[in-house]
Amino acid sequence: VDAVETVIIGGGQAGLALSRCLADRGAEHVVLERGRVAERWRSERWDSFSLLTPNWQTRLPGHRYTGADPEGFMGRDDVVRLLERYAAGLPRSLRTGVAVERVEALDPGLPTGWRVSTDRGVLRARNVVVATGDQQTPRVPRLAATAPDGIVQVHSSRYRNPGQLPDGSVLVVGAGPSGQQIADELAAAGRRVLLAVGRHRWLPRTIGGIDVAEWQERLGARRRTVEELDDPAAARARPFPVLSGRHARLHLGTLVRRGVEPLGRLLAISDGTAHLGGNLHADAAAADESAQRFRRRVIAHAAAAGLAVQHEDPEPPTPPLPHLPRRLDLAAEGVSAVVWATGFRRSYPYLQAPVLDAEGEPVHRRGITSAPGLAFLGLRWQRTAVSHAIDGVGADADELAERLTAQGSNWTARGWAAPALI
Ligand SMILES: Cc1cc2nc3c(=O)[nH]c(=O)nc-3n(C[C@H](O)[C@H](O)[C@H](O)COP(=O)(O)OP(=O)(O)OC[C@H]3O[C@@H](n4cnc5c(N)ncnc54)[C@H](O)[C@@H]3O)c2cc1C
User: Fold this and answer.
1) Spatial CA neighbour of 262 closest among 192, 324, 343
2) C-alpha angle 309/312/315, rounded to 5°?
3) Residue having the nearest C-alpha atom to atom 52 of ligand 1
4) How far apart are CA 115 and CA 113, in angstroms?
5) What pTM did the predictor assign?
6) CA dist., res. 122 & res. 251, Å (int)
7) Which residue CA neighbors atom 34 of ligand 1 most closely?
8) Phi and psi dihedrals of 182, rounded to 5?
């Protein structure tokens, strides 16, 4: 059995960023990735996918965007190339094609290290960092099982392009960033699209000619830490804002203008009939209000900084939403496919350590768990609002690398106290 100081599970941006930070400190480690570098970007994003964060926000430890289009948005393959190049700069720490199957304490009575079993052999490690992504396992509601047999069903992580779906109407379930982008693409391709809408929010791509990412930076939204929040659990559960990865606005209004037919929340399917909630108008109004709230914050900030930003939103408002059916006969509407844009959850089936709560979510403080040497990286609001994102994980990785290398053999005893399990 080989021994290594730190095993990092996952070769996405989080695992690679931590590898960079450990290498800079001369700390021994290995990154185990079951697929290829950036596997999630390669195999779980649609063909036309582009980042919602601009190019200048693809900063990672030791990497800055230096291309010609800092305000542009990388496509899926650009992100893969970026992470491949980044991984190539790491000092031989990466092992691809190695799946971690079990992580357990070497001695459960005296947890001084971990046994990491993989499909390629076993490692002993003092530290294990789980960097397998915040948006990990497709979350598909149980009612999917009740959809009529002839309907093709695909989760957003398996959706590639309109041509993949059979002819006919498409029901997209979920109006978050993925659902709205996919609905937009399907409608642009001439498909009839029905969109089941729940609680969501959106942000204007630009305000006063300045990109929303720049405003978030100026407003200090990225510097706020989890300790400053009144309710971190609520922040983690908040819908991700809908944005377009182009220089354009995306929200229900733009979709309706494109011909997408919004519906209420999908509640149940029985005997080929979809049952829908009456929530659409309230949820659309709440989403519009959250966009306007953000706009007002920007205007106030700009005014304080002596910048003039037009008070009136120059883009057309959301057109009135249609009167809604509460029941929809899927066959009569010609629905041939359902795209579940219903998000992701986390799952750690290989983790034999008491660090998960009743819902299977990691219990941690800034990634550090109560199990000595076991940490997470890349979780939503792990430390800041951008901990799960490309531009945010670097600072967290740096902090974690500092912890891992500044420790004695009992490093959770230093600095933050380990959180109690709930
Ligand atoms: C649709 C979508 C759009 C997004 N858009 C943006 C955006 O515009 N900008 C932005 O900054 N962020 C965006 N994100 C958020 C975030 O950047 C991505 O989720 C990103 O993939 C997270 O990187 P990560 O390294 O934390 O995890 P991942 O990329 O998920 O990497 C984890 C790796 O772990 C590997 N792995 C899992 N289990 C095991 C195991 N048992 N053994 C070995 N390896 C394992 C996986 O193969 C994977 O490669 C988006 C996310 C989604 C879902």
Assistant:
1) 324
2) 105
3) 135
4) 7
5) 0.94
6) 49
7) 10
8) -70, -40
Nearest partner of 73 among 250, 235, 219, judged by Cα: 250
Alpha helices in 89-238 (DSSP H): 177-188, 212-218, 232-237
How many CB atoms sit inside 10 A of residue 288's CB? 17
Kindly give the distance from the C-alpha atom of residue 81 to the centroid of ligand 1, in angstroms, as a whole number: 15
For 323-391, the DSSP string reads P--SEEETTTTTEEEEEE---EE---TTEESS-B-TTSPBP-BTTB-SSTTEEE-S-TTSSBTTTTSHH
The H or E element that residue 393 is part of is helix 390-406
| Cα gap 23→93, rounded to integer Å | 9
Higher pLDDT, 410 or 145: 145
Cα–Cα distance, 13 to 28 (Å, whole number): 19
What's the gap in Å between 396 CA and the centre of ligand 1? 15
For residue 328, give both structure tokens: 């929809």
Number of H helices, E strands in the chain: 9, 22
Pocket test for ligand 1, best of 84, 350, 390 (most atoms within 8 A of CB): 390
The crossing angle, in degrees rounded to 10, of helices 13-24 and 390-406 is: 40
Q: How far apart are CA 161 and CA 184, in angstroms?
A: 11
Which of 16, 20, 39, 391, when mutated, tests ligand 1's pocket best, judged by the most ligand atoms within 8 Å of its CB? Answer: 39
Structural contact between residues 396 and 367, judged by C-beta atoms closer than 8 angstroms: yes
DSSP-assigned letters across all residues of 234-246: HHHHSPPEE--SS
DSSP state of 220: T
For the stretch 316-375, pLDDT in tens is 777 778 778 899 999 999 999 999 999 999 999 999 999 999 999 999 999 999 999 999
**Tokens standing for residue 221:** 């939204």
pLDDT beyond 60 at 257 = yes
How many angstroms separate the Cα of 422 from the Cα of each of 33, 108, 130?
30, 20, 20
